[in-house]
Amino acid sequence: MDVLIVGAGPTGLTLGIDLARRGVDALVVERAEGLFPGSRGKGIQPRTQEVFDDLGVLQEIREAGGPYPARMIWKDGERAGELPMFEKVAADEGAPYTEPLMVAQWRTQEILHARLAGLGGRVAFGREVAGLEQDAEGVTVRFADGTTARARHVVAADGGRSAVRRALGVGMAGETVDPAPFLVADVRVRGLDRDHWHTFPRDDGSGVALCPLAGTDDFQLQARLPEGREPDLSLAGVRELVAGYTHLGAEDVTELRWVSDFRPRAALADRFRAGRVFLAGDAAHVHSPAGGQGLNTSVQDAYNLGWKLGAVLRDGAPEALLDTYEEERRPNAAAMLGLTTGVHHGEVTRGRATVQLGLGYPDSPLSTETRTDPAGVRAGDRAPDGTVDGVRLFDAFRGPHWTLLGAAAPTPGVRALPAAPESYGPGVFLVRPDGYVGWAGETAAGADAYLARVGLR
């Protein structure tokens, strides 16, 4: 096969979808017997909504969740104040999605899995990786049951404790973001309205929050415990926790559906590529959950890598194109780690920085700006939405192709529109399959040479 993807979380499933629509022979393997059952990564940021729009799942994602409620602060059993969870970011033609969506992670994965299956892709569950060896032609992966699989490339999307990363010997440097133990759980609770994210802080910094999970009957329980207190993950322990921090009684927690504990840390893999193996998602970077960046950064890893693997494996692009995955995504992940740590410590607000619409690749070797005095959108920037001759740009971008704005297509397989929206500024813009401007020029001269350089001619 072409690609073996290890891990059926949001990262692995997103990559599987992108490769399937490009005709790449890929298989997703997952050590568990089924999809992840919890709500953990529930925030879908606006940039990820744009990715899901392109992949054909945004409508289902929107129907599966809803907006974030305001935060209600409780003190001594009384409502003490209400605060918005996020700073408002105004929507416009170029950025139609500016509000984060709340969707339980298990539901996001169900939708992605269904989309993958609809494209002919599949997930093999119960396949635990035990080791791997690679050579000049490919990678042999060994599974715990004694079987093996052979692929031209392997992508590790198997989480923060990645077995593939350990097998490669790639280090992961990081730091503890918070020394306190944390607990997260999906529970059924009575006695709270579903219009607020209910928070119950204590003066010592510990506290409990109960957030109604949009699209479900559950609440997500989040708790920061005092240092030295070991989390009790049983139903009795969760009931005791809720009763101790809120005005609810232990009996008001009627069901414990999923639970986990963790200590927030920020860590970044030393490399995102080792030969024919790539690290993506939590296997490459681990975030504090504050600010809702982890799942989103992970999905965008897959989105960046998918078109490049497709170009090399199906379109004859040079292998060097795959080097740009680490060159683009590792600095991006490092910046997101700093952002999430800042949000965790209250130094950064949840607003324009966390919606990820301003992220780009201005320093990438794939970003070529040839205009002498560029204004508006530049090479390396996210390509905004807009309308040209009655065609919405996001509709034009949707699919695994490149798009040229402002001139006729220089080569087959590139969709062309006669102009760019006024918001782009003057020039001609070549938009990558992942929605970033790769090349910009005064005229179309040079677009053909750029495509040849990245191997698409």
From TrEMBL:
Signal sequence, start to end: none
Region ranges (Disordered): 359-384
The species this protein was found in: Streptomyces rameus
Keywords, alphabetical: FAD, Flavoprotein
UniProt cross-references to InterPro entries, sorted A to Z: FAD-bd (IPR002938), FAD/NAD-bd_sf (IPR036188), RIFMO-like (IPR050641)
Keyword DNA-binding assigned: no
Cofactor needs: FAD
Matches recorded under PANTHER family: BINDING MONOOXYGENASE, PUTATIVE (JCVI)-RELATED, TRK SYSTEM POTASSIUM UPTAKE PROTEIN
Domain FAD-binding intervals: 2-337
Protein's UniProt name: FAD-dependent oxidoreductase
